[in-house]
Amino acid sequence: MSIRIINTEVCQNCKKETCAFIDRVTKIDSVFASEGTVCPTGALQANPSQQNPFTKKECIDCGLCVGYCNKSNLEIENEANKFNFEYCNSFGMNALVSNYLNKIFPFAANSNRNSSVLFDGYVEIGEEKEAFVEVDEKDALECLRNLLGDFLLYRGQYANEVNTGLIVLTEIPPRGSSNVYTVIERMRMFPNLESKNIYITTFSMLKYLFLHPKNDSVVFENVFYNPLKETIEEYTERITKETGVCFSNLK
Ligand code: SF4
Ligand code: SF4
C-alpha cells in the first residue's frame, strides 16, 4: 500500500491540517481525552506537502492520515491489510488503535498515554455502553489478564458498569494454540466476571472499518470476534460476506 497527495495546492492552502492534528475531545464525565495527534510513528508531523512523509521508513501505511484529512486529499494506492510495525512501539500502537476506534465509534481515548490508568484504551460503543481496550502485537493472554484486572479494579468507577473488553492483536490466535480461549470460557464462573464479554479483533480489521465508514453506526458486537458465540471460521465467513473482503486469518 502507498499513499499519495492528490493535489499539493489543496494541502498548501489547508488551514486545519486534520491529517496531523485532531481536535481533542474530552469526555465530561471521565478524565479521558481523545488523542491529539494522528500519526502513530511521527512520520507525519505537519502539512504533508512540505515534506512527503509517505516516503519515510517510519510510515507504516496505517491510513490514519487518509481518514482524518478533512479535504479527502490523500489517496491510497494498492490497499493492503498488512502492517509493518518495525517503527511503531507499544505507545504508538495504543495511539493507532484509539484513533481508529475514535472514528468508528462515538468516542475513544488512548487512556494509558500518561500511564495514569491501567487499561490501554477506552471506547464508547453506543447505547451508554463502554469497553476497556487492551493492545498487544501478539500476546492475547497478557491482554486478557489485563482486561480481567481492569474489570475488577475499576468496578463501580464509571457512570455505567463496564462489561465489555476488546483485545487488539496482529492476528486472532487459532483455537488450540493459546489457552486464552480456556480462560475466557471459565471466566464466567467467577464472581464479578459472570456478565463480562470479551471480544478480539486485529489491527487490520480496525483499519478496514476506519477506511470504509458506513452510513449507519457500526455495531460493536457484530464486527468483532466473540469466542463464546462463534468459531473463528464462522466469524471470518460472516465478516467476509458482510464486507466483501477476504480477511483470511485477519492478519
Ligand atoms: S492532507 Fe488534508 S488535512 Fe492534511 S494538509 Fe493536506 S488537505 Fe489538509
Ligand atoms: S499512513 Fe500512518 S504512519 Fe504513514 S504518515 Fe499516515 S498516519 Fe503516519
Summarize the structure in words:
The chain is α/β, with parallel strands linked by helices. It has one domain (2-243). The chain contains 8 helices and 7 strands. The protein has helices at 8-12, 64-68, 90-104, 140-153, 180-187, 203-211, 220-223, 232-243, and strands spanning 2-5, 74-77, 107-109, 121-126, 129-135, 164-169, 197-202. The strands form 2 sheets. It has a 5-stranded mixed beta sheet with strand order 3-4-5-6-7. The mean pLDDT is 88. The structure holds iron/sulfur cluster (2 copies). Residues 10-11, 14, 16-19, 47-48, 69-71, 73-74 line the site of one iron/sulfur cluster.
Task: Write a brief caption for the model.
The protein has 251 residues and is an alpha/beta fold. The site of one iron/sulfur cluster (SF4) has 14 residues, from helix 1.
Features:
251 residues, alpha/beta, five-stranded mixed β-sheet, two-stranded antiparallel ribbon, 7 strands, 29% helix, binds iron/sulfur cluster
